[in-house]
Design brief:
Length: 197
């Protein structure tokens, strides 16, 4: 995972998909913003996803991390990378399956009492409702046609979530200057090594 200090902010996903981008990017090579239950609760409070005073449990932290990595696997597939085993690049091949299981524990219902009707969390626990709300954002982005533009950087040491603003939707790295150059240098090295063999 890359450090957020090295990432451009001008490529942020449009709201509310920016919440998913920020959530996935809580894990970096230099740390994890969801390192403790208190950090999880603080992250959710900062984004107005839970009320002030809300606390999280170790189980909810584990669930949040599993949701995060499941979403990372989904957005890697938006970058034409099916997640299969074995994966030496930081993507867990079981993450999508685990997310599918968790989504049954974080149900959403269509609230027709609001205009326009939308998916809302069916759970009453604040942290779980926030996680379900993040899954609702995924569903809304799919419906809006913006989901496939949210991707995970193809650089194995990075996996930063980014929104592909390019016209042809073919961007593969979060940053051409950082990850793109690394990938191109590595490919050139492999070509030189192969030609010598």
């Amino acid at each position: 995972m890359a450090s957020d200090a090295a990432r451009p902010d001008d490529d942020a996903a449009p709201a509310p998909l920016d919440r998913i981008e920020a959530f996935v990017n809580t894990r970096r090579d230099d740390g994890d913003d969801l390192g403790t239950p208190a950090q999880l609760a603080g992250w959710l409070r900062t984004r107005a996803l839970v009320a002030a005073g809300t606390t999280a449990t170790a189980g909810q932290l584990e669930r949040a991390r599993a949701v995060r990595e499941g979403i990372r696997a989904l957005i890697a597939e938006n970058n034409a990378e099916p997640v299969s085993s074995p994966r030496p690049d930081g993507l867990d091949p079981a993450a999508r399956r685990v997310l599918a299981e968790l989504s049954r524990e974080l149900p959403l219902v269509l609230d027709v009492t609001i205009d326009p009707p939308r998916l809302v969390p069916a759970t009453r626990t604040p942290v779980d409702a926030a996680l379900a709300g993040l899954l609702a954002v995924v569903a809304e982005a799919v419906a809006a046609g913006t989901w496939h533009r949210l991707k995970a950087c193809r650089e194995p040491s990075c996996r930063w979530a980014y929104y592909d603003h390019s016209r042809n939707r073919r961007r593969t790295w979060c940053s051409m200057e950082l990850c793109g150059n690394r990938a191109k240098a590595r490919a050139a090295h492999h070509r030189r090594t192969a030609s010598r063999s």
